[in-house]
Write a structure and sequence with these properties.
Length: about 425
């Protein structure tokens, strides 16, 4: 019976179980390159964990370069409380307009009791955490903000030719400069309506190196826009407080331009306002062959953006075929590079690395690891393992990461059904 189950499982997941082909094999739907440890390199530490680093990719023989623009909504609605303690001061800001409070408890118009826990603060914290995780040798990042100034009397644009999007950081691998600009955005604060088209067109201009761009185009780099919004398009047509067909069509025209330029748009709709009628955000992603991600609680964007993938790799799992242990203590970067730990025993260990692609396919590669006990203290190694475990725990709290959980369970089932001596 076990042999029948194993055969069925292998038929469903041919690249997951059994002896995997080399990472460079043309038949593998996912290619895996191991950078560390090197062949023949003996590993030594006291924590019985072997660190592994490498890259997974769905096409080509080498990891791709990426140019990424973060397009961030800074409209007036982003001053509302996000629902999380963004500044980690121990108190979660809330919207007093939604609570039964004594009159005068807060100044009129207050929509977040902590100005550092707003939706804008959550967007910027998410962008900061993402940028900090990127590989500057392969990725350039730029930052665009968008909104739209409104006439307080009629809600129309202040001027027909006004600027509704701003380039805060041109494409760069100077990540410290990019992260510094996030503080300047927070200092400016939210304002105005929401002009999707202006934000996306400016991002396209920079990524494609069109007239007026301050960024230098990079041939061969994959171009991605991460589009964050808590609302729906309300400009450039009509009053800035409502959406109409013209606003949506302007956004979709910008998406069509992005697609012609080979740019992928991944859109994130934050909170109930963005999800009441998300047609613009979903269609922008569909037209450009990107992904749409609904974020029910705006504060969750901090965790969502850390789980983003540019390389179409969703998860990486290590399996020690010698000790029969599966490790999910792996940190996956957006560009497909990974680093993590697998439990090992003294002597030779056969380890399988399996990567899951966004389309549900997977690929594996196997290697031999020689491990020796060491008397040296490995405090930094243990701390890094703790950081990876905490990050993975946060990702798995999100409903949208259920496919990763299923993938990890499949790896455990494969190991249970696979004869112990098959890969040794």
């Amino acid at each position: 019976m076990r042999a029948v189950l194993l055969a069925l499982l292998l038929a469903c997941f041919p690249a997951v179980a059994g002896a995997a082909p080399p990472a460079s094999a043309a038949t593998s739907p996912v290619r895996i390159r191991v950078d560390s440890p090197r062949p023949g390199e003996a590993l030594k530490n006291r924590v019985d964990q072997a660190p592994i680093r490498g890259s997974a990719m769905t096409e080509g023989d080498r990891p791709a370069d990426f140019d990424v623009i973060l397009a961030i909504d800074v409209s007036g609605s982003t001053k509302v409380a996000s629902g999380v303690d963004v500044d980690r001061d121990g108190e979660v800001g809330f919207n007093p307009q939604l609570e039964l409070l004594e009159p005068g408890s807060f100044p009129p118009g207050t929509v977040s009791t902590d100005p550092n826990d707003t939706i804008l603060a959550a967007e910027l914290a998410a962008a900061d955490a993402l940028i900090a995780s990127l590989d500057k040798s392969r990725i350039r990042v730029g930052i665009v903000t968008f909104s739209g100034d409104m006439n307080p009397l009629d809600g129309m644009r202040m001027r027909f030719d006004q600027q509704d999007a701003w380039l805060d950081t041109a494409l760069t691998n100077d990540f410290e400069r990019a992260r510094t600009s996030l503080g300047a955005i927070m200092a400016r604060g939210p304002h105005g309506g929401t002009n999707f088209a202006a934000g996306l067109r400016l991002a396209v201009t920079e990524l494609a190196g069109l007239k007026g761009a301050r960024s230098q185009p990079r041939p061969g780099a994959k171009k991605v826009v991460l589009f964050l919004t808590d609302g729906i398009p309300t400009f450039p047509i009509g009053p800035g407080g409502v959406a109409d067909e013209g606003d949506i069509e302007a956004a979709l025209n910008a998406a069509r331009l992005a697609h012609k330029a080979g740019i992928v748009v991944n859109s994130y709709a934050l909170g109930p306002n963005a999800l009441t009628n998300p047609i613009a955000a979903t269609e922008m992603a569909r037209i450009t062959l990107g992904t749409f991600m609904p974020v029910q609680n705006p504060g969750d964007i901090i965790s969502f953006l850390q789980g983003v993938t540019f390389a179409n790799i969703e998860d990486v799992v290590f399996t020690n075929l010698t000790t029969r242990e599966v490790s999910t203590d792996v940190q996956l970067a957006p560009d497909g590079s990974f680093s993590g730990f697998v439990p090992v025993q003294e002597g030779r260990n056969k380890v399988r690395i399996t990567a899951l692609a966004s389309d549900g396919r997977s690929g594996s590669v196997e290697l031999d690891l020689d491990f020796e006990k060491s008397g040296l203290t490995e405090r930094e190694l243990a701390l890094e393992l703790d950081r990876i475990r905490e990050r993975n725990k946060q990702l798995l709290l999100l409903v949208e990461r259920e496919r990763i959980q299923r993938f990890r369970e499949q790896q455990r089932k494969v190991l249970e059904l696979e004869p112990a001596g098959e890969s040794e």
